């Protein structure tokens, strides 16, 4: 499966199959949330949240690919990510793009 953020793949002609998407909502446990709260007082990277978002992005991408494979797609083009806070310490990450089949 080819994944690109552009709306083309050099040297390939394709037909569009539809939107492929994947999402997940992730949170950290209360202990990590409290430690991150203390970290905001002194500054610096909140590594627990960085890890959470990276993990969520990987899961959302995997689910998007699975949906595209269900459409018999060869690639997903124009991939985008969206993130939103669902509640304190929890975030939704969505990956979406256009599933395409090579001609």
UniProtKB/TrEMBL annotation:
InterPro entries: UPF0145_dom_sf (IPR035439), UPF0145_YbjQ-like (IPR002765). Belongs to the UPF0145 family. PANTHER family: UPF0145 PROTEIN SCO3412 (PTHR34068:SF2), UPF0145 PROTEIN YBJQ (PTHR34068). This is UPF0145 protein KDK92_14800.
């Amino acid at each position: 499966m080819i994944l690109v953020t552009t709306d083309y793949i050099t040297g390939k002609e394709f037909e569009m199959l539809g939107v492929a998407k994947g999402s997940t909502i992730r949170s950290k446990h209360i202990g990590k949330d409290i430690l991150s709260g203390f970290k905001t007082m002194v500054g610096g990277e909140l590594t627990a949240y960085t890890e959470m978002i990276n993990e969520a992005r990987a899961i959302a991408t995997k689910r998007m690919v699975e949906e595209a494979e269900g459409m018999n797609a060869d690639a997903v083009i124009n991939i985008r990510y969206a993130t939103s806070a669902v509640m304190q310490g929890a975030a939704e990450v969505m990956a979406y793009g256009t599933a395409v089949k090579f001609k």
